[in-house]
Amino acid sequence: MYSLELNKVIEEIKRQNAKQVLIQLPDGLKTRAGEIADFIEKNTNAKAFVWLSSCFGACDLPLGLDILKIDLMIQFGHNRYWKTERW
Amino acid sequence: MTRIIFVDSKWEGDLTLGDKVIKYLKDKKIKSLALFASVQFVHFDKVIEQIKELGIEVKLTKAKRTSQIGQILGCDAYHDSFQEPIIKESDAIMYIGDGLFHPKALLLSQIKEKEIKPVLQWNPMSKKFSILTKKDIEPEVKRKIRNLKLFVNAKTIGILVTIKPGQQYFNSAKRLKEHLENQGKKAYIFIDDTLKLNELENYPFIEAWVNTACPRIGTDDILNTNKALLNLREAGNPIKELGELNNHEK
After folding, report:
1. Which of A52, B92, B97, B113 lies 20 to 30 A from B85 at CA?
2. Which one of A55, A83, A85 makes the best mutation probe of the B interface by having the most chain B beta carbons within 10 Å?
3. Predicted ipTM of the assembly
């Protein structure tokens, strides 16, 4: 079983006072989307939403979330990525 | 502005090598081992202890795009993806984790070497030990060579750019377009979010495509399309690239 560190997630949502949160999951964790969204909504005042499709890595973040007023995006299954310049 | 956090979702189960792996390392008289894992398994202290107990030197490095020593990403698939050349300097390479995407990167990073060392894979979830060899990337290498040849002779090129921030190389695409046009080719830049290769069918006037996004598109996904598609890194000097890959084939 993979650790989802939901208590840390809750702390971070509260610390940032996020009102709308988007969860992005790699395919292997997508089955747990409902469980994560429910936990967030039960333990914080934030509304939780789920990114439907791709989550190839930390290199693959959804754009345009400002338009929906998403305060916080939580990507599971990856860590910080350092883009390298090429060519 | 939307803020972003990452939860790396560590594996919480047993993270020790099985007897089969230990026996293999002993039988093969391995003296040094380059160790890698995906982020879920990179807390592999017990594995390091087990290997050291066998008298084997464990070599670790940081892949340039990752956050943790020992961690590998799918895009770390080039000889210069790592801070230290531990793959070259070790008797064996080991990957801890599941799937084929990451361990294949370790094979692909050796694509231009005369000898491609196998990758030993221990999957802590299924407790399965497997060995990936040069054969596992042969279809990709063959297709790469075919695509490079088609690209060299193509007159009209399509350059693919993604808007995904971590994979966006718009400026590189514009530089490549200029470079290709200086060579007498015509190049167009196509922009999308997730690059779906079936979309390429809508542009039959394009003879060859260059992907500037995830380098695994021009390595793994090329097996899923007949279109001549290659990566940005190969498009700058395709003749040199062909020479180096042919060297591997001998």
Report:
1. B97
2. A83
3. 0.86
